[in-house]
Each structure stands twice: as structure tokens, then as C-alpha cells.
Design a protein that fits this description.
Structural class: alpha+beta
Strand order of the largest sheet: 1-2
Low-confidence stretches: 103-108
Largest sheet: 2 strands, antiparallel
Number of strands: 2
Strand content: 5-15%
Number of helices: 2
Number of domains: 1
Length: 108
């Protein structure tokens, strides 16, 4: 969370003069699907718990018709009631254990 808060401040989202502090922002993690929900997500099915999955199986109906060098997808799924990520949310995508890079457009 500190890395994300630092990035939010660096990009002028919060923590600067006249803005709310960055630690006042609501932050949550979107979890990766597992088990049956993972397989459902990777095959384009709906009705599973909110989360995400990586689709990199060229036989998946979600990427099967894509060019061979584009048969990968990061797919967010939701329960049909609440969007994942939430509409208007700022989403940061990073590998676990890696620092959020600096710069004004990093992570956006």
C-alpha cells in the first residue's frame, strides 16, 4: 500500500496541497480466481465471485481468434451487481514483490 500511495501522490491524485491525504483513500486487492472459478474465468463464463484471471491458453474461446502473438488476456469478473474494478476506480497492476516504478505516468 505505501508504494501505491506514493504513486498516487506522484501522479497528483492525492496528498498534495489542497488534496486529501493518500492514506485516506479506500484501497483493496482484487484476488486471483482459483479452482473451478479460475477455469470458468479463463473460459469466459459468468456468475463467479469477483476477481481476475490470466487467460493465456490459445484454446480459450476468449483468445482463440486472436493473432498468435496476442493470445493473452487479463480478465476481471464480477458478480453482476458491482463492477470489478469499481467504476471510477484507479487500478494498479503490478507483480507481487515488485516496486511501483516512478514517473508521472507509471501505473496508470
Amino acid at each position: 500500500m505505501p508504494a501505491v500511495q506514493a504513486q498516487l501522490k506522484a501522479t497528483g491524485q492525492c496528498g498534495n496541497a489542497g488534496q486529501d491525504p493518500c492514506n485516506s483513500w479506500c484501497q483493496c486487492e482484487i484476488v486471483q480466481e482459483t479452482g473451478d472459478a479460475l477455469r470458468a474465468c479463463q473460459n469466459g463464463q459468468e456468475g463467479i465471485a469477483p476477481g481476475y484471471c490470466y487467460v493465456d491458453n490459445p484454446e480459450s474461446p476468449l483468445v482463440k481468434k486472436c493473432p498468435p502473438n496476442q493470445q493473452q488476456l487479463l480478465r476481471f469478473v464480477d458478480d453482476g451487481k458491482n463492477k470489478t474494478p469499481a467504476q471510477g476506480a484507479v487500478a494498479f497492476i503490478a507483480c507481487i514483490g515488485k516496486a511501483v516504478p516512478g514517473g508521472s505516468d507509471a501505473g496508470m
